[in-house]
Specification:
The chain is an all-alpha fold. The protein is built from 17 helices and no strands. α2 runs antiparallel to α7, α3 runs antiparallel to α15 and α4 packs antiparallel against α5. The radius of gyration is 20 Å and the shape is globular.
């Protein structure tokens, strides 16, 4: 295992640096926007702009890689990310921030694509699992380190924007110095959402729910924490608790789902997540310890849903269609992510900050109802076709699906 990881150490280190900046910005931007007097709806639109840019980047990225190669694509997009971040500290306004976040989302999608395709190129079937596990660990660690760095300076100053920009500059160094051969551009999978919905309605509905609810929390969660009177340090801990809770529980919940009809686990976790969201909205006030512990439990219940939805969809398709299926689900999730922050912000604008959790509860309740209907209409996939659950990163391009160890064994047939 160690030789395989050492061979991609430069790429993993680049990923870590890049995601530290992302974790920092993800907490900083909504808090700073709230301090500047942006409306809650405007903050939601700014969050949606990032995901809109990300979707566009996923479509254009393969063409850039084929035209100029991995290193040049990464360098250009790191420059765009750094410039967009610095511009936000200079041009503080709703319109400029919407544009800058869309540009940043476009750049981030391409940077993910470069890193993930490089890792996939270096990972053979025998080492794919260890490389993917290392990538997941770096992904989660970098994101949480960035969230913690939010507490190192005042969000009203330019310092945190500058710090994030420094990380986007530094992530160029390992990639620029690597002697790894650039991989050939991966083929772009055909995306057929309607076909996939006919095969796995619950898998598709689950990815829509994740885009609506999870990314509403990533975007508007810091605004809610700020409205509860938390300090910068406590806001950082609030977001880390949410991220850490979901990170730690993914594998145990996934292994449980491997032993039964995954739809029962989806319905159960969504029922508990909806209940937790309603309780947070109604009863969790300004108590710091209660708020942090509650959001940690909420992350435990909420964040495994994406991996469960992808695994359920892949239970019902041939193994050779794995990448097409997962790429389609990622696209569906990304499009729903464009809507999620704006919809949640609209609800918060009308009913107040706690309504964020009523919004997520409504999404989860709708998914529970849909899943229960499907349980009555269709039997579970046979045990011989059931995939093993694999945790998935919080964000990633379609190229990350090639790295998933489930893709390596193509022995399953429909």
């Amino acid at each position: 295992m160690i030789p395989q990881i050492a061979s991609v150490a430069a790429i993993l280190f680049t990923t870590l640096i890049f995601l530290v900046g992302n974790g920092l910005l993800g907490t900083l931007i909504p808090v700073r926007a709230h301090m500047e007097g942006f409306s809650t709806l405007a903050i939601g639109v700014i969050g949606s702009a990032y995901f809109a840019g990300f979707v566009i980047g996923c479509f254009t990225g393969p063409r850039w890689l084929a035209r100029v190669g991995h290193i040049r694509t990464f360098a250009v997009c790191a420059g765009i990310a750094a410039a967009a971040t610095l511009m936000q500290s200079i041009l503080v306004g709703v319109t400029s921030w919407i544009v800058m976040r869309a540009l940043f989302g476009f750049a981030a999608a391409n940077m993910y694509m470069v890193l993930e395709s490089w890792l996939n190129d270096r990972a053979g079937n025998e080492s794919r699992g260890s490389v993917f596990a290392s990538y997941l660990s770096v992904n989660f660690a970098g994101f949480m380190i960035g969230q913690l760095l939010f507490a190192t300076a005042r969000p009203g100053s330019f310092v945190l924007f500058s710090l994030a920009t420094i990380f986007y500059a530094l992530c160029l160094i390992p990639v620029g110095l690597t002697q790894l051969k650039q991989p050939a551009p991966a083929p772009v999978p055909v995306l057929r959402p309607l076909r996939l919905y006919r095969i796995s309605p619950v898998g598709v509905a689950g990815c829509i729910a994740v885009g609506l609810a999870n990314n509403a929390i990533w975007t508007m969660g810091p605004v809610y924490a700020q409205a509860q009177g938390l300090s910068s340090g406590a806001i950082a801990l609030f977001m880390v608790a949410f991220t850490l809770g979901g990170t730690l529980v993914q594998v145990p919940v996934g292994r449980l789902s491997d032993r039964m009809d995954r739809r029962y686990v989806i319905a159960g976790t969504c029922t508990l997540a909806a209940t937790a969201g309603i309780l947070i909205a109604l009863f969790v006030g300004h108590g710091r310890v209660l708020l942090l512990s509650s959001i940690g439990v909420f992350g435990v219940l909420m964040l495994p849903l994406y991996g469960l939805s992808v695994a359920h969809a892949n239970d019902r398709i041939p193994r050779e269609s794995f990448v097409e299926s997962s790429a389609t689900l990622l696209l569906i999730n990304s499009i729903a992510s464009v809507l999620g922050p704006t919809c949640a912000a609209s609800v918060m604008d009308i009913f107040g900050a706690p309504a964020l959790f009523f919004f997520t509860a409504a999404v989860h309740i709708a998914l529970v109802g849909f899943t229960l209907v499907r349980l009555r209409q269709k039997e579970a996939a046979g045990a011989e076709f059931r995939e093993k659950f694999s945790p998935l990163p919080h964000e990633g391009s379609p190229t990350s699906l090639e790295l998933d160890p489930r893709k390596g064994d193509e022995s399953k047939v429909a």
